[in-house]
Design brief:
The complex is a heterodimer of chains A (about 220) and B (about 220). Chain A has about 220 residues and is mainly α. Chain A has ten helices and two strands, in the order αββααααααααα. In chain A, helix 6 crosses helix 7 and helix 9 packs across helix 10. Among the domains of chain B are: about 40 residues, no CATH class; about 80 residues. Chain B is rod-shaped. Classes of the chains: A mainly alpha (about 220), B alpha+beta (about 220).
Chain lengths: ~220, ~220
């Protein structure tokens, strides 16, 4: 029965278009179909979790944020007008929830002492990033490069981070990113460019393998 | 450079960028770094969702469905309120409830214990058949001082006997108290009444012409 909401075979044109499938799923959700709710969770649980995980500086809170995202999806499905895909609509809710959570966190943790200050006494965004708890074992086991990429991603401005994640991790088009972030195409291009540049500067000189980490192939 | 990487440049901008990258070593290095960065970002593993997330989201979905159905109409809303009130009352009464058998027996014992001490039974010892429960006081031996027939008047004396069988008091019901009657009372011996096999106080009625024993 669940498969009937996934797609329909049109005798004339073959498989149903994604837009049509989204519209049918949204319609079933508005009608209160339990099957539709289950299908929505099965289809978007992992992508939404991955997106939230990459957008949050501290992924430990991703679980709660994802639940809030789905709660808002369930309660606001009536406002989905098929003007965009269901995916971009849900991703927009996810980005907004991450932003709301970040603001809540900032209000409630404003009095906490920042661990490091730069020499000029000011504070930059990188100083406020939560410690991801990396251990040397993590670096060895999970790949040093991957860990550096994730740390650099967590250190850049969250506004640019969202654009880079949506483009380079989620592989959304510029138009879809504009829809998700509710910004113009020009702003999308600008944020992607600045985000990539910020990450490149964070990782400059680190992505190339260092002599200390080169394996002796003769012994392998 | 970023848009060129994403194939978002139209001609002639695209050609201009290609020419520039070919000529400028610094920009070419930056471009290679950005390509490498994008490649690394795309190769990041998908963060696996925790196993219980699916369960929690299904529970969330079920609750939302119930919430929507509850608000779909006035009758559904009223029924929902009724269900919640019923559940509230059930939960309030549950700690006080007892199983039927135990509760019934407990209630019966409780009522019996309250009522029984307050119920009095009318007792008429005159019609009682002597039994081990109670025996009346009796005369063992009438004193030798008594001389029946000397007086023409009947003398009836009610004698109170204690638990040891001794006379503790008397009441002249008929006739006159004479020395003879007094000696009879003093030197006669009695058996005390008993209650549940235990000696207790009682009464004996002595008639001078005839001994009538009463309890």
């Amino acid at each position: 029965m669940a498969d009937s909401l996934l797609f329909e075979i049109n005798p004339e044109s073959g498989v149903e278009s994604p837009a049509r499938a989204d519209a049918r799923l949204a319609s079933a959700l508005r009608e209160g179909s339990q099957e539709a709710y289950e299908l929505l969770v099965a289809r978007f649980q992992q992508p939404v979790y991955n997106l939230v995980y990459r957008l949050m500086a501290d992924p430990g809170d991703s679980y709660d944020v994802v639940q809030e995202v789905f709660l808002k999806v369930f309660r606001n499905i009536g406002t989905f007008r098929n003007q965009s895909s269901l995916k971009t609509w849900i991703y927009r809710i996810a980005v907004n929830e991450v932003h709301n959570y970040r603001r809540w966190l900032f209000r409630h943790r404003r009095q906490e002492v920042v661990l490091e200050d730069d020499s000029e006494g000011g504070k930059n965004f990188g100083d406020a990033v939560a410690d991801r708890g990396r251990s040397p074992y993590d670096y060895a086991l999970n790949g040093e490069k991957r860990v550096m990429i994730e740390d650099a991603l967590a250190r850049i401005n969250p506004i640019f981070r969202a654009a880079v994640v949506l483009r380079d991790v989620e592989d959304l088009s510029y138009e879809e990113i504009a829809d998700v972030l509710d910004i113009s195409l020009g702003t999308v291009k600008s944020r992607i460019t600045r985000g990539r540049e910020a990450m490149r500067r964070q990782l400059e000189g680190q992505l190339e393998p260092q002599p200390a980490f080169q394996w002796d192939t003769a012994a392998g | 450079m970023s848009r060129y990487m994403d194939n978002r440049l139209a001609q002639p901008e695209r050609s201009n960028v290609i020419l520039h990258l070919a000529a400028c070593g610094e920009c070419a290095t930056r471009y290679e770094q950005m390509v490498e960065l994008r490649r690394n970002l795309r190769s990041l593993p998908i963060a696996p969702a925790p196993a219980r997330l699916a369960t929690d989201l299904h529970v969330l979905a079920s609750r939302e469905l119930v919430r929507r159905r509850r608000r779909s109409s006035v009758s559904a809303l009223m029924q929902s309120w009724g269900d919640r009130a019923r559940l509230l009352i059930d939960n309030l009464m549950r700690p006080l409830a007892l199983p039927f058998v135990g509760g019934g027996l407990t209630s019966a014992l409780f009522m019996f214990g309250i009522l029984m001490p307050n119920i009095g039974f009318i007792h008429n010892p005159a019609n009682d058949t002597p039994s081990g429960i109670y025996t009346e006081a009796s005369v063992i031996k009438v004193a030798a001082f008594a001389s029946p027939g000397k007086s023409s008047d009947d003398t009836v004396v009610e004698v109170y006997i204690d638990g040891q069988g001794h006379m503790v008091d008397y009441n002249l019901l008929q006739g006159k108290m004479t020395g003879e009657i007094g000696n009879l009372l003093l030197f006669s011996t009695f058996t005390p009444a008993t209650m549940f096999m235990q000696p207790t106080a009682g009464k004996v009625v002595i008639r001078r012409s005839q001994i009538v024993v009463k309890g």
